[in-house]
Amino acid sequence: MSSLEMLALLEMAQGRPLIHGQELRGQERDQAFSRRESLRLAGRWLIGFGKRSLLVLALLALWEVVPRLGLADPAFLPPFSDVIAAGWQLAQSGELYDDVAASLLRALSGFLISVVFIVPLGLAVGWYARLGDLLNQIIEVCRNTAPLALLPVFILLLGIGELSKITMVIYSCAWPLLLNTIAAVKQVDPLLVKSARTMGASPQQLFRKVILPAALPTIFVGVRLASASAMLVLVASEMVGAKAGLGYLIIYSQYSFLIPQMYFGILGITVIGLTFNAVLEALERRLMRWKAAV
Amino acid sequence: MSAIKISFEHVRKEFSVRGENGGGLRRFTALEDITLDVRAGEFLALVGPSGCGKSTLLDLLGGLAVPTSGRILLDGRPIAGPARDRGIVFQQYALFPWRTAAQNVEFGLDIAGLKARERRDRARHYLDLVGLAAFADRYPHELSGGMKQRVAIARSLAYDPEVLLMDEPFAALDAQTRETLQSELLRIWRTTGKTIVFITHGIDEAVVLGQRVAIMTSRPGRIKEVIDVPEELHSETEDVRSLPIFGKTRHEVWSLLREEVLKTQQGQSPGNAEAPRADEAERELVHV
What we know:
The complex is a heterodimer.
Chain A: H1 3-14, H2 20-52, H3 54-68, H4 80-93, H5 95-127, H6 129-143, H7 151-158, H8 162-186, H9 190-198, H10 203-240, H11 246-255, H12 259-287
Helix pairs in contact in A: 4-12, 5-6, 5-8, 5-10, 5-11, 7-8, 8-10, 10-11, 10-12, 11-12
Chain B: E1 4-18, E2 25-39, E3 43-47, H1 54-62, E4 69-74, E5 77-78, E6 86-89, H2 101-112, H3 116-129, H4 145-158, E7 163-167, H5 175-192, E8 195-200, H6 203-209, E9 212-216, E10 223-228, H7 244-268, H8 274-287
Parallel strand pairs in B: 3-8, 3-9, 6-7, 7-8
Antiparallel strand pairs in B: 1-2, 1-4, 4-5, 9-10
């Protein structure tokens, strides 16, 4: 093979000419190419995002247009832009910050306290069959008592302050967490347990190295359900008796006929819910990288 | 004649099962008077009709269950629970899905309390032995069935057990992968010198792998006969399946097993005429 042929082959392999002067131009071209490439990727991402959010964007557009066209009374359904404007004013007065902070504090503290105490309890109940038998009925009774029905009881016993609201959140988070954690432990593939036992795993090692990692995905289902439940119960309890919080903002705005502000409160709850979910999803992806992509 | 590694002495295993139609508990005998010696370094294949208690036998050997009567000795001492002197390979791999191939191989070493560095070295060595060094960082769901079973074999070998117990390890694999793994297992057996008890319901597999083949009876399981497999059938170079002696040995095992499969089916369908039953037996034997 002649050296010229070699050169041609190398060029073909690298996809660009190898002569020095031309190589510079090749680099420029590469840069232009990568710029174009990144633009194209951004464009594709934008299109993808647009496709996925099409219905949401359409809904918002409808919200804007319907009151403006007089198809709905703007007093009861103000256009989306008015709602955002009202929200902007709330944010500037600092009121919004107070309400969001109050709600977040209650939801997060209740949710985290519940996770910290209930998940270990669920693990124990799932692991020790006898403890499960003992607690089974009381769990069923409490679980089937809707948390909101107990709201008056919590207020009577704990007052209308933070304590009753956080207790409500803890209570409502507890059941999805507890039931899913118990189920998670019970559903661990017996073959994995058997396999670990044949390798001489002690009960503690079995628990730490097999039961816990195997149960994690199902426990996470409970965590996601609990976070949704926390928001639901929190808003309701803030509507009944509170001096701050998004639930309070919504009900207070309605009473004062500040309708755009009321809608903004509702949007605030949606955004918090979405954020919670996104954080949990990211955490789940991080912890369970080993799972097959679904 | 080498030393006796495992010795079953009149082992019997009963279970309590709920009768049909939700009736009361009744006793059910899975194994009856099993007496069998396994020599050190031997490859023993165990075949029997389905439901004859092969897996129960393995559970007893693994220390996961206790015989109702009789005893099992390992190096002259009765088995007292599971331990790392016996490694078990299951049909369904039983890999931990949250651990990579290497981390799975490290599991037993982790349990044994080995330092991370030594665990890593040993895991690499055994993954290399089963030809999966390049897949050390893959998760089980990223591996094929054959690869998963190799990882499981490496995991059992990694903590250096004296005995390897295998419960139909290749039954879930396609025919080609199975043959490859069979010859690899023989190679591993030769290099490591482990005692292997290999449970299967495949006659070919038993004859190709075992130095001896123990045939079990239908329920309750007993050892019906133990056949010595001729030395020629363990040639590393020849296609042993094409040797006439292979066909002869296979036929011997087949005839012994056929009687038992027939018995099982008589038990299952007492009203049937003789002829169709024999047909079914043939069909079941074709599968194995």
